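Lab intake sheet, docking and co-folding queue.

SAMPLE TYPE: protein with bound small molecule
LIGAND NAME: adenosine-5'-diphosphate
LIGAND FORMAT: SMILES
REQUESTED OUTPUT: full 3D complex as structure tokens
PRIORITY: normal
SUBMITTED BY: R.K., bench team

The fields below were copied directly from the construct record.
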Amino acid sequence: MNIDYVATTIAVLTFFGIWSLMAISLNIEYGVAGIPNFGKALFVSIGAYTTGVTYTRLLPILAGRDFIHPCGSTLADAIQLRSDIIRTMPVVAFVNFGITLVIAAVISGIIGFAFSYLVLRLKEEWFLALVLLVGGEIVRIFVRGYQPLICANNGISAVSQPFAFMGGRSASIAFLMLVLLIAFIAYVYSERLIRSPYGRLLKAIRENEDIARTLGKDVAKTKAQVMFIGSMIAAISGVLFAVNLGFVNTNDYVVTLTLDVWVMVVLGGLGNPKGALLGAFVIAVLDRLTAIAAIQMNMAGFNLEFNFVRFILFAVILLLMMRYRPQGILPEPNYTTEAHDNLTARTTGD
Amino acid sequence: MLELSKVSKDFDGLRAVSNVSLSVKQGEIVGLIGPNGSGKSTLLNVISGRFPVTAGRITFQEHDITPLSPDRIFHLGLGRGFQDPSLFYQMTVLDNTILPAKAQKGENPLFAPFKRFWRQEEHQLAERAYEILTQIDMGRLFGQLASELSGGQMKLLDIARSQMGNPQMLLLDEPTAGVAPPLAQSIFEHIANLRQNENMTFLIIEHRLDMLFNFVDRVYVMHMGELLAHDTPDEILENAEVREVYFGD
Amino acid sequence: MFERILIDSLIRSMQVGSLYALMALGITLTMSVLKLPNFAHAEFVTVGAYTALIVSRNVSTNPIIILGLSAIVASVVALVSHITVFRPFEKQKSSIYIMLLASFAVGLIIRYVLFLTADTFDLFDQRIQVPLEIWYRTDNFILSNVFFWVVPTSIVLVIALSLLLNATPLGREMRALADNFDLARVIGIPVERVKWLTWLLVGALAGISGALWGIQTSVSPLMGWVVILSVFAAAILGGLSSFPGTILGAYVVAFSENTIMQVLNFQFGLSFSFKPAIPFIIIVIVLLIRPEGFTQFFKSNRSLKR
Ligand SMILES: Nc1ncnc2c1ncn2[C@@H]1O[C@H](COP(=O)(O)OP(=O)(O)O)[C@@H](O)[C@H]1O
Ligand SMILES: [Mg+2]
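RESULT FIELD (auto-filled):
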């Protein structure tokens, strides 16, 4: 079989961009602030489900067309409608996409914020991990069970990315650029955040929140802010994830997605945004390589589902990293604000 | 300035502090002594809001601070140090010192990514922190990680750090524990200076009575969670009960 | 009609609840003695089920042999996980989140090795070959010997486990570890040995419950993962520390998933697709509102303290 190297590279880089966003958000939450968010799938899924809803409800309105119920007997017509609009009315497609990003980010941010206050009641730290994990599953089951939202088990297809009107390879390249741009903004934001007084505050809370509190810091509020930010970024990645695949389906937002993001962050280096990028890149490449290997093996007549190997591989990477290099490939540098440089300059100048 | 009335604190049925009433006036340095396990640290934790009280009422400058969280209490101007220095060991001495500064613009996640909002402020805070560090002879250490300091330096930094929030009053828990005598002496001199120059008030738990008594106006003695006595340093040593719990005679 | 459905679901609740109890006791033991929220427990269960499947096909259909071998294989897997993964992390003083992640990773590895095995030997959704006897049947309701395997076996095991914990030196040592780890070490309890035995015990419990679960339904690589959060819900209802609380929790979860769900469906038309949410809702509510679970009902009991 011929491998289309260009298409593969575009796909890998697009996934890298989307996963970077997830990794960056978990890196801010756990790496920097010490909040164990085991509900990444939940916040990513909020982005995806929002996409499912806006593409079926908002898009026709924006295009001035009649609403067609997306599920059941009118399914084919609804798909046709979406594809038509996206193909022929790029402006509408973009406006719809932009609104989707905003709505998803806000809803997800608020839910993250609310969770963080809810969990103040928890007796033990790790219960937060469990509550977030379970929260994701609850949302998933309800979305899957409640037909009108995204047609239950069937999901919503034809949620194309906004550049689809360009068609072919240029569409994927344009979308890739958009994804990388968003990821880059998130990266720069997190990098700057860490080197600011806010980063100092987060590090203090991570190290000893009790002491931070007695030194006048509102720890609950700060953690809620972090959850707000992290959940917003995660939801944005969820929107991108869904429109990249072209469909929304509850089966994509399960616990293993959360674990994938943890693998990226632990692998790259907790607390270091560059590490989050590196982790996302390695995982994107490995993910694609295993997928290609699986296809190749099937073509070659092996009766082995090589996709299963992916999970084993990632789990082994996670265990080995935590055991032998817990700080990750790129350890957290000792961030300081520029005040240090100023003082150094002044005191050595004296 | 600080007023405790009938404050008690239970841990799972164990009464660590029982019915303690005391008061500290503006500008005073007051000692709090008592054998190990008599409830001194617990009392400090209760005042600073780290542990909720079981019963009683605490006021600070007319505010009822009994139900307040530690950060609110700190913001009212009541700071504290810790018995085991609880620094942020993964941060530099300078960052440890700046952190407690109040209302930093750069501590807002919206402004934080943009230096122009907080560069100026951060610079001033750093200068002030450096000044405080210089007072205790630690200026040149500002770039070191807190985990690299010696035990005595950690205690010093613990005090210096709480100064950064401009407190009117400091609660200190054994500020010279595990510190060599000359350094202990200078820690106390630093405290006396702070009272003199910045009109700060202190409540200090301390085991080094000889040193403590040179600096304090009054002393409270705790024993098994209760207040046993209260007097000037000279008189308190004459108190038979105190001599019994303290020196066993 | 309704009565019949009700009775059917009650019997199902009994059966499922007994198995949840067996699995949840394993979670409670790991949590209190080993201080680990072990998500890989799910896969220990699946390993037990696959062992039962393979034994029933190739070795013997004698239930004692099936259950025994399932117990042995799963306990070996549990012990190997401890030695290769959990113990090094303990030594490293890793945080509970790292331990949690490690347990997920161990679970994933076992799960997908089973997937690969099942894929190679075509072992998806297979039934364990035990002689099935219908004891009682009506139009829509069957009572088979499976019920009389599952429920009494579970009850016997639970009683045996309680005896072990309360009346043997090992049980005393395990409770000491649960109570105060450092103290246990100081007073000379052979901590590592007790841990090994605990892992073996936990694995055996999981293995047997997996075999029984497989006999009741069918065997697939995801079967443990599918029920693990129900099982955690049961253990959380038991405050993650109390044995009687955990058992009660198991029946409450099973009852909610089957009987209450059945009633909600029959009376209000609630779709069965919401059924998996029940244990999750239980977990969230209990953790937020009553994290001690049922433990207070059993204060006088000599439960495992944490
Ligand atoms: N967090 C806590 N939980 C339970 N008991 C505590 C706690 N902190 C202190 N205690 C108990 O309260 C009593 C007083 O301790 P403490 O206030 O530290 O005494 P001191 O500082 O005078 O040496 C001791 O018996 C101690 O064991
Ligand atoms: Mg003390």
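REVIEWER NOTE: Chain B touches chain A through 48 residues (CB under 8 Å).
SIGN-OFF: pending second check by T.M.
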